[in-house]
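In response to the reviewer comment on reproducibility (Comment 2.3), we provide here a single inverse folding case reported in full, input and output, so that an independent group could reproduce the run without further information from us. The structure tokens appear first.
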């Protein structure tokens, strides 16, 4: 039986991913800081499916604990997906270095260091798939959320470098950019329906990528984002800085 580790298992997207893989008969490892919430998710998944679900406490901001965390899993997963993220408050992040650091560390430093440690173990074993949930916000710095965008840009660049380094070892590294997703984190934001995915759509994209049904190193959940971001990336900086984005 294949095993997936979902890092950020109590998030809306993490929950959907865990349930999608469980429905396909995978063994599930869900990790996060909220052990009570993880236990509830595990019980719900177990009630809906026949899969084994285990709960693992993880503080993504505590890098020194990562080795012990991975040792505690019992078995190394076949696939690991990082769903960890913190949108934060954009205005606060502009003026509050502490809040900006939380956003940057939650979206980039912690996930990158943990996936890096997992990568070494996958190389030693000779197999594995690493999937990082990044963001279209990381493809171009925008005035409205540049701290969050910068953190996701760093994570995207890390995944790209890791992917190229591990290619010769047969380890796949996939970057998934969901675009807008309807979750609790975005509940207060008015989102355009045509480019807004549901958590289940993200889960389907992760499953398709992990199982080889959808090819590609960098995937947009809704394919419409590909031409949109091509246009956004091509706008000259002198023009871009005049836009209200």
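Designed residues, in position order:
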């Amino acid at each position: 039986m294949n095993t997936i580790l979902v890092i950020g298992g109590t998030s809306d997207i993490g929950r959907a991913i865990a349930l999608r893989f469980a429905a396909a008969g995978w063994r599930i490892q869900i990790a996060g800081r909220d052990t009570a919430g993880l236990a509830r998710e595990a019980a719900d998944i177990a009630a809906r499916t026949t899969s084994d679900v285990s709960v693992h406490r993880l503080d993504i901001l505590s890098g020194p604990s990562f080795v012990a965390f991975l040792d505690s899993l019992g078995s190394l997963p076949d696939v690991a997906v990082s769903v960890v993220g913190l949108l934060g408050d954009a205005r606060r992040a502009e003026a509050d270095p502490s809040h900006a650091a939380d956003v940057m560390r939650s979206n980039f430093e912690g996930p990158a260091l943990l996936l890096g440690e997992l990568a070494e173990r996958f190389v030693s074993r000779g197999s594995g798939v690493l999937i990082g949930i990044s963001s279209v916000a990381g493809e171009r710095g925008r005035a409205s959320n540049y701290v969050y965008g910068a953190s996701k840009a760093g994570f995207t660049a890390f995944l790209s470098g890791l992917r190229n380094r591990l290619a010769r070892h047969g380890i796949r590294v996939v970057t998934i950019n969901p675009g807008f997703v309807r979750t609790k984190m975005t509940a207060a934001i008015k989102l355009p329906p045509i480019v807004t995915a549901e958590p289940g759509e993200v889960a389907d994209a992760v499953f398709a990528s992990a199982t080889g049904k959808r090819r590609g190193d960098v995937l947009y959940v809704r394919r419409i984002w590909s031409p949109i971001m091509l246009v956004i990336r091509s706008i000259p900086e002198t023009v871009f800085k005049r836009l209200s984005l």
